[in-house]
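Incident log, structure service

09:12 report received: a user says their structure output differs between two submissions of the same chain.
09:20 pulled the input from the user's history:
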Amino acid sequence: MRLRTLVLMAGVGLALAGCGLRGDLERPAPMWGDGSGADAADDEAPVDPDAPVPIDRPTAR
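09:34 re-ran on a clean worker, output below:
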C-alpha cells in the first residue's frame, strides 16, 4: 500500500512539474483605457542608489 501511494505521488509530481509557462512572461494589454495610469507612474520611478540589490530593468530585444 505504501509503495502504491509513493508511486502515485511521484507520478503526480512529475505531471505537475511539466506544467507551466516557459520563457519571459509579458504583461498583457489593459482591458480598458490606454494604460497610462498608476501603472505608468510605477515604470518611471527613479532608481534608488542606496538599494541593497540592483533592480533589473527589462531590455528590449
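09:41 both user submissions now match this output. Likely a transient worker issue. Closing.
09:42 reviewer note: The mean pLDDT is 76. The CA atoms of residues 25 and 44 lie 20 Å apart.
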